[in-house]
Design a protein that fits this description.
18 strands; alpha/beta; binds zinc ion; 17 helices; globular; binds 3-methyl-2-oxobutanoic acid; about 500 residues
């Protein structure tokens, strides 16, 4: 029997720290259910002390996960730890993950603390967290740029205080595989009780080495990897879960351990996270990119047809590519619809929400004969918030464009119930649509990113549009799906405006 490599997913915490990737409580519940289906060992559901919304989301996830540990991040102080403890209270198995920076630059410039003070805070934090749970994880932030002697002292001290997992973050993605692997080996050799704890790593991808660094650590004794779906995360992201899992599984000849992940859930998880966050997956992304198993060159196609192993080291269906199955059609009834949503982990808040979603499903089935799981996710993404009393709602859009015709759009929005309309011309149909929306809403937001992706295959697929808006330092991603990509664009823009508005209201409640 090989040793277990623990998969710690931080899509909903570190992943959420990507600009615009914030998730609602309902979205986190959907992701958490998918992670559980995938058999992730630890789900870091958020940073409970960071906002009431994050607290609620961690609390809700803790209440639903039956198989796996639910974790909240906490800085090394009593308030954060108390909030984390309260948020994970409903969990069958809960973990508090506390951290403090240990690199000279972070201690001096950010914390303005001496190493001795940092050590005292770390020990106090672990001791305090242990009052709430036996499962405490400690991270010396920016370990990749910390001094090894100091790391040994602080890790030895927190292990003595009862930390069960010690996590070594390469916070700024600075290390290289050989060096990082050797750091893990040396720490394990030097710290007396190192065999009593799980060694974990948490690598960022600033130099494109997050996965390589994590795997080098695994070769040197790490038995937990912190990672995210699609490699989402701060700046260039974190190590991608799908790459870690499939590298270890595919190369069992070199790795001394394996995960318990159900890899067939990887592609559905990737699609779900991409749809919710509005971060598209690049086509050539390993494992989950649209081209990951596509063989274009004739010589490759010929080889694959003769024997798949000539050019393929994994099977597409083993990572869930064939999970894209036809699920419902025009004649499917309300019960089948509700049942499939349930199987996908989608639970709507009220009968009204189910009725509205069922109506949208019927409308879609009229336009598109085959409805796939991805369509159902797209159908509820963004729309779930519409039900929650947002300021703007798209009522209708008409637009005309063509060769020798200046694109023109007419839009009707409802502003908390009252209809508002405007028309505009633009350089293209999407430009005209966004200008018309702006002339009603006058948000003044800056469009940072616009992208369209097909939700499924074929020309009748829904287009899923992501719109990233920024205003006053706040960045949000809006998503919208429709078989008409201009309508999808309008939905995405309105969705982003509502998110921007609710972010502003959270910061400035009198608005
Ligand atoms: O990157 C980092 O150092 C972190 C820690 C909080 C673990 O995310
Ligand atoms: Zn991180």
């Amino acid at each position: 029997m090989k040793e277990r490599l623990i998969i710690f997913d931080t899509t909903m915490r570190d992943g959420e720290q990507s600009p615009g990737a914030s998730m609602t409580r309902e979205e986190k519940i959907r992701i958490a259910r998918q992670l559980e289906r995938m058999r992730v060992d630890v789900i870091e559901a958020g940073f409970a002390a960071s906002s009431p919304g994050d607290f609620d989301a961690v609390y809700a996830v803790a209440g639903i996960i039956k198989d796996g540990i639910v974790c909240s991040l906490a800085r090394a102080n009593d308030r954060d730890i108390e909030r984390a403890a309260a948020a994970i209270k409903p969990a069958k198995q809960g973990r508090i993950h506390t951290f403090i920076a240990t690199s000279p630059i972070h201690m001096e410039k950010k914390l303005r603390m001496t190493p001795e003070q940092v050590l005292t805070e770390a020990v106090n934090a672990v001791r305090f967290a242990r009052k709430f749970t036996d499962d405490v994880e400690f991270s010396p932030e920016d370990a990749g740029r910390s001094e090894i002697d100091f790391l040994c002292r602080i890790l030895d001290a927190v292990i003595k205080e009862g930390a069960r997992t010690v996590n070594i973050p390469d916070t700024v993605g600075y290390t290289v595989p050989e060096q990082f692997g050797s750091l893990i080996r040396r720490l394990r050799e030097r710290i007396p009780d190192s065999d009593k704890v799980i060694w974990s790593v948490h690598c960022h991808n600033d130099l494109g080495m997050a996965v390589a660094n994590s795997l080098a650590a695994v070769m040197n004794g790490a038995r937990q990897v912190e990672c995210t779906i699609n490699g989402l995360g701060e700046r260039a992201g974190n190590a991608a879960l799908e790459e870690i899992v499939m590298a270890v599984r595919t190369r069992q000849d070199v790795f001394p351990c394996d995960t318990r992940i159900d890899a067939t859930q990887i592609v559905p998880a990737s699609r779900l996270v991409s749809g919710i966050t509005g971060f598209p997956v690049q086509p050539n992304k390993a494992i989950v990119g649209a081209n990951a198993f596509a063989h274009e060159a004739g010589i490759h196609q010929d080889g694959v047809l003769k024997s798949r192993e000539t050019y393929e080291i994994m099977r597409a269906q083993d990572v869930g590519w064939s999970a894209n199955k036809l699920v419902l059609g025009k004649h499917s009834g309300r019960t089948a619809f509700k049942q499939r949503l349930k199987e996908l982990g989608i639970e709507l808040e009220s009968d009204d929400a189910y009725n509205a979603a069922f109506q949208r499903f019927k409308d879609l089935a009229d336009k598109k004969h085959e409805i796939f799981d991805e369509d159902l996710h797209a159908l509820v993404s963004g729309e779930a918030e519409a039900a929650a009393g947002e300021r703007w709602r798209l009522v209708s859009i008409q637009q005309a464009s063509g060769t020798n015709e200046r694109p023109h759009a007419e839009i009707v929005l409802s502003e908390t119930g009252a209809e508002r309309r405007a028309a505009s011309e633009g350089d293209g149909p999407v430009d005209a649509t966004f200008k018309a929306i702006e002339s009603v809403t006058k948000s003044g937001a800056e469009l940072m990113l616009y992208s369209v992706n097909a939700v499924t295959q074929g020309t009748e697929s829904q287009g899923e549009v992501t719109v990233r808006l920024s205003k006053g330092g706040r960045v949000v991603n809006g998503v919208g799906a429709d078989t008409d990509i201009v309508v999808a664009s309008a939905k995405a823009y309105v969705n982003a405006l509502n998110k921007l508005q609710s972010k502003i209201e959270r910061i400035n409640p009198q608005l």
